[in-house]
Amino acid sequence: MATYYNPNGNPEEWDEKPSGYYTEDEWAAMHPAPEPTKEEKLAELDAQYDADKAEIVKYFNEAQLAEEAELQAELRAEMTAIDAQYVEDRKAIEEEGDE
């Protein structure tokens, strides 16, 4: 059995596609997901940045406790790159629609 969507969008299981029903791909093409708002994009970017930063800080603290200077330097460089990418991505999102 396959899933087909009735005209109201309710999924139903059928052996064959009934007249007036849509496959999952057809229904998705007719009802694309809405584009996230600028605020939603910024919130997602901030959440990802915070998660990435927290992970780097965790590893940096472990490297510091283990007195691994080379790893600390690598993690500092990675954090610098994450910071720069964040600033660039945030600016791009904030400028959307300003053109």
Detailed description of the structure:
The chain is mainly alpha-helical. It is built from three helices and two strands. A hairpin with a 5-residue loop joins strand 1 and strand 2. The chain has a two-stranded antiparallel ribbon.
Query: Ranges with pLDDT <50 over ≥5 residues?
Result: none
Strand content: 5-15%
| Alpha-carbon Rg, integer | 23 Å
Structural class: mainly alpha
What is the number of beta strands? 2
Q: How far apart lie the N and C ends?
A: 49 Å
Q: What's the shape? A: elongated
The DSSP helix count reads 3
Q: Major sheet, described briefly?
A: 2 strands, antiparallel
Query: Average pLDDT, to the nearest integer?
Result: 93
Q: Helix share of residues?
A: 55-70%
Strand order, main sheet: write it out.
Answer: 1-2
Order of helices and strands: EEHHH
Question: Main attributes?
Answer:
2 strands, two-stranded antiparallel ribbon, 99 residues, mainly alpha
Topology (elements, then pairings):
Blueprint (H helix, E strand, L loop, with lengths): L1 E4 L5 E4 L9 H7 L7 H28 L3 H27 L4
Antiparallel strand pairs: 1-2
Question: How would you summarize what this structure contains?
Answer:
By secondary structure, the chain is mainly alpha-helical. The chain contains three helices and two strands.
